[in-house]
Amino acid sequence: MSKLQNSNITLPFIDYIPAELKENKVWEIVYYAIDPYETKANNRLKRKRHRVRPFKCKKERRIYAKSIIIRLNQQLMRGWTPFDRVNNSPIQEQEPPKKVKLFEVFDNYLHQIEQQTKKDSLRPDTLRAYTSYIKNLKVYLIAKKQENAAVSYFNEKFCRDFLDMIFYERKNSARTHNNYLGFISLFNRWLIKREHLKVDFTGNIDKIRVSEKIRTIIPLKERTEIFNHLKETNKHYFALCYTAFYCLIRRTELSKLKVADVLLKNGIISISADVSKNRKSQVVTIPSQLIHVLIDHLKNANNHDFLFSDDNFKPGETQLEPKKISDTWSKYKKKLNFSKFYQWYSLKDTGITNYLHLGIPTIDVRNQARHYSIKQTEEYLPKTILKASGTIQSAKLDI
């Protein structure tokens, strides 16, 4: 019989032996710990055991046992003792938690996200996206008559069915499917940390392959037409679109910029970390074609104003909703009978492509667009400026 099979053993400088599962006729979790309340202190490790309740299948039983073992070992490592002063009894298996409704957990999760957003730990866009995801999950549950379902209903089958509905029934894109999967994975891990669930099943659900993004370039003729029209009818929205085209600034970033961020004397716009999508403070250059437009746009503006506000895109105190930018673009696009493929973000794509076509060094374009790598910028390279390798062409390679 080994020493570890004795109910009491002595090991110098050791306070405990980690818990482990014994799958015998009776499944038990076994571990050893010092009893600090022992009348005669002798540094003996006492064996503690408790049974693992049965499940329908061994796999679920092992998973359940593992969760208890992890918790026990974490407590033992922190110096916790399974004994008490009264009867030195070990920790008992916890009673099954009360049924918690999935809807309530959704609301609790969103409440935490709202608090993090208020403290600037998360972006408002993140809150909006998560709110939308949960809203659609709730709608799906109600359609399935599961509005009172327990949190355990949030399992692999449910999530697969929901994602199939998103992709096959609603005919959303692969990117949308994958975005939902990303959120489900995040929420699932949150549930595990709060001990609502025990298993991360999302690794079993595959992403759908996303086709390469097609970038639509707005031709010079159409570009000139819409810019001239905006200049005559809505000069402040014209300034916004011009800024997006020349400075390659994203829609949400434009809605957060303040007048003070525009340094006309230096010819730059400062984009702080709390404004930037990538959470990095950077600057972009204001080309000479844009300077006079911004000077006109900023007449009588205060430094604390938003650069483009909700007041018809003028500088002002009320922050602009990013969606209003693209909605306004759609209105003008329809009015001018432009192609549906000319989206608002096509302005930024067109600006990047034009800079590269003009021979601007890729590194400068990358910095202006604030891409994470040169490779990302090179995806915009038009085929017309790509050239054959001279060394390959002149290579004397015989058959």
Automatic annotation (TrEMBL):
<protein>
    <recommendedName>
        <fullName>Integrase</fullName>
    </recommendedName>
</protein>
<dbReference type="InterPro" id="IPR013762">
    <property type="entry name" value="Integrase-like_cat_sf"/>
</dbReference>
<dbReference type="GO" id="GO:0003677">
    <property type="term" value="F:DNA binding"/>
</dbReference>
<dbReference type="InterPro" id="IPR002104">
    <property type="entry name" value="Integrase_catalytic"/>
</dbReference>
<dbReference type="Pfam" id="PF00589">
    <property type="entry name" value="Phage_integrase"/>
</dbReference>
<feature type="domain" description="Core-binding (CB)">
    <location>
        <begin position="100"/>
        <end position="192"/>
    </location>
</feature>
<dbReference type="InterPro" id="IPR011010">
    <property type="entry name" value="DNA_brk_join_enz"/>
</dbReference>
<comment type="similarity">
    <text>Belongs to the 'phage' integrase family.</text>
</comment>
<dbReference type="GO" id="GO:0006310">
    <property type="term" value="P:DNA recombination"/>
</dbReference>
<dbReference type="InterPro" id="IPR050090">
    <property type="entry name" value="Tyrosine_recombinase_XerCD"/>
</dbReference>
<keyword id="KW-0229">DNA integration</keyword>
<keyword id="KW-0238">DNA-binding</keyword>
<dbReference type="InterPro" id="IPR044068">
    <property type="entry name" value="CB"/>
</dbReference>
<keyword id="KW-0233">DNA recombination</keyword>
<feature type="domain" description="Tyr recombinase">
    <location>
        <begin position="213"/>
        <end position="397"/>
    </location>
</feature>
<dbReference type="InterPro" id="IPR010998">
    <property type="entry name" value="Integrase_recombinase_N"/>
</dbReference>
<dbReference type="GO" id="GO:0015074">
    <property type="term" value="P:DNA integration"/>
</dbReference>
